[in-house]
Amino acid sequence: EEDVLAAWAGLGYYSRARNLVKAARVVADLGGFPDSEEGLRALPGVGDYTAAAIAAIAFGRRAVVVDANVERVVARLFAIEQPLPGARKAIRAAADAITPDTRAGDFAQAMMDLGSRICTPRAPACDACPLAGDCAARGHDPERLPVKAPKKAKPVRQGRAFWIERKGHVWLVQRAPEGMLGGMRALPDDNWSARADGTGAPPVEGAWHEAGTVRHTFTHFTIELAVLRLDGGAGEMAGPGEWWPLDRLDQAGLPTLFAKAARLAEAARERRRD
């Protein structure tokens, strides 16, 4: 799992990487990959869309595949006016009505391509669309479909990350397996979360220096993370962690937020040297 998380670093949605490992173990135990939607949905991290896509594209099953691109094409084709997410039931039913019994995988991929290349969110190329003659939204401002509910403002959380450097190494911890950035190596922090600000408390006492603040947006919130440096390191560090060589920091697999914080801390060190 550690190797997969390191390779995944910077992509976000780290629960997907953990589920990838879990699903691989289940498939190995089964002795083969499930080829039905029901069997695929039983794999960790596989939902309705992924199960349908694999069943149709990999195994030639008739399955109704609806991603964001297909959702847009179908909403316009049938002029479905109900706002999302409530419209998804009607969109799926309409997609089911036009999904063929054979070559459903080819159909699904064609619909995805149609949405990504022609029936785009802005300025759709209706004149080039093979479905234009049957599209109920053509000539009636297709860009407004699908109708989206107003976005809610994302909360902004405040937290701190701590850079502890000693003899060419920096102290890294491994985050708890579950939760935000679970299982990833990271700088120590003050226990901020999606629901609350951090405590502000450093992991050890010392002469901390501010290195700046990084701002990073997750799916449901934004974090403003103040980065503090402790030069010269500390004595014995409490809790699990490791002294990681600074010249191999790019191999630690830090998630994007903490990679930003590390760059800020290193830049502050260089300024202090100058």
Describe the overall structure.
It is a single chain. This protein is an alpha+beta fold and 274 residues long. The longest helix has 18 residues, at 256-273. The model has no long low-confidence stretch (mean pLDDT 92). The protein has eight helices and six strands. It has helices at residues 2-8, 14-30, 37-41, 48-59, 68-77, 88-98, 104-117, 256-273; strands at residues 156-166, 169-174, 185-186, 209-217, 222-230, 242-245. Strands 1, 2, 3, 4, 5 and 6 form a six-stranded mixed sheet that branches. A hairpin with a 4-residue loop joins strand 4 and strand 5.
Largest sheet: 6 strands, mixed
How many beta strands in the DSSP annotation?
6
Element pattern in H and E? HHHHHHHEEEEEEH
**Overall body shape:** elongated
- Rg from Cα: 24 Å
